[in-house]
Design goal:
Elements (H helix, E strand, L loop, with lengths): L8 H9 L4 H9 L5 E7 L2 E6 H19 L6 E5 L6 H10 L3 E4 L6 H11 L3 E4 L11 E4 H5 L15 E5 L9 E5 H8 L1 H8 L10 E4 L6 H13 L3 E4 L5 H11 L3 E4 L1 H16 L3 H20 L1 H12 L1 H8 L5 E4 L14 E2 L1
Parallel strand pairs: 1-10, 3-4, 3-5, 4-7, 5-6, 9-10, 9-11, 11-12
Antiparallel strand pairs: 1-2, 7-8, 8-13
Length: 349
């Protein structure tokens, strides 16, 4: 894959800072035109979409949703889908149609989805699963129908939506919904300018490929892959599913530079590696532990240089077998929606 320069992070950050709205964020992203935006495998072959493709799809989806939902502007619409290449145009289609988005786990029960709809006051739900027990007053929209929305050149957006709401899982109590306006979300995206100085391995003005592993209803997946990565002009890689086989095949063929995940997944990789290591000879195990100790020692003295040595010299062949030879950083975080570092008050619906 050829990595081409894409944009000036500071220039785009200044442009976004001048108007902290979702519409302005989208307009900046739209300027990437024919830059690669999404990658996936189909019958073992790499397929892709550009940002120009996404802009056309977003307009088509927005026109379809505007007519299908027929609600007041600024009404909330639930998006309940697993991570997929259509997430970008569905989310932005909702916003462009004049509505706001509630991000709901596709694996939630009908009872929980009904509760979240009631709490948010949503007028419709876009989902990839059948929901026979939904409140009949809420408009049900099959996501596959949205994916097949006819092309249009005549739709003109009116007022854009400017809010997104994220739901806590409810595993430790009642699920809560936190609403963020465009400015609060933009403040998260603007961290890219700071990170471009402190985390140069992950923030670049090139068309990096980022592995879209996390669900987009999750605050970390939503902010990093759907908002932040697209603002940087990155391309998201979408595996067919989250089985180890699909992840490894997709990573090895599509060659991500970034793998955005949570500590549990990283720990599982390490556990699997330790199990394989235990089956090796005493000499190989001793050699591995020696290289690991040397690598960590170098990283303590010179972090950037140490990581490069670990990736390219000590463990290059191992990394290549797991996540591809282009991987430069595994980003880890655990966040609940209520812990977003925003500079504006957040409101619980």
């Amino acid at each position: 894959m050829t990595i081409l320069p894409v944009h000036d992070i500071k220039k785009n950050s200044d442009l976004l800072r001048s108007n902290k709205s979702l519409k302005n964020l989208y307009d900046i992203i739209a300027k990437y035109d024919d830059t690669e935006a999404a990658v996936w495998l189909e019958n073992g072959e790499i397929q892709s979409l550009t940002y120009s493709d996404y802009i056309k799809m977003t307009r088509n989806y927005a026109a379809f949703l505007h007519d299908a939902i027929e609600a007041e502007p600024d009404s909330y619409v639930v998006i309940s889908m697993d991570t997929c290449k259509e997430w970008f145009p569905v989310f932005w289609g909702v916003i462009q149609a004049g509505y706001n988005a509630v991000l709901v786990d596709v694996n939630q029960t009908d009872d929980m989805v009904n509760y979240q709809i009631q709490q948010s006051g949503a007028k419709a739900i876009i989902t990839t699963v059948q929901r026979p027990m939904l409140d009949p007053s809420v408009r049900y929209i099959d996501a596959n129908a949205v994916f097949q929305a006819p092309e249009t050149d005549t739709f003109t957006p009116g007022k854009w939506g400017d809010h997104a709401a994220l739901c806590t899982s409810g595993t430790t109590g009642t699920s809560r919904i936190f609403e963020y306006n465009g400015e609060a979300i933009v403040e998260q995206v603007l961290s890219s300018e700071l990170l471009s100085h402190s985390l140069k391995r992950a923030v670049s003005n090139k068309n990096f490929r980022s592995f879209a592993f996390l669900p987009y209803h999750h605050v970390f997946g939503f902010i990093v892959n759907l908002m932040w990565s697209c603002f940087l002009g990155y391309s998201n890689i979408y595996p067919a599913n989250r089985t180890p086989q699909a992840i490894l095949e997709t990573a090895q063929k599509c060659q991500p530079q970034l793998f955005v995940t949570v500590p549990l997944v990283a720990n599982n990789f390490c556990t699997g590696l330790q199990k394989k290591l235990a089956k090796e000879s005493v000499i190989k195990r001793a050699l591995f532990h020696t290289m690991k100790a040397v690598s960590l020692g170098i990283q303590r003295i010179a972090p950037d240089f140490g990581l490069k040595v670990a990736e390219k010299v000590f463990f290059g062949s191992l990394t290549s077998k797991l996540l591809g030879s282009s991987i430069s950083r595994m980003m880890q975080e655990i966040l609940e929606p209520s812990s977003l570092d925003v500079r504006l008050p957040k409101r619980s619906c």
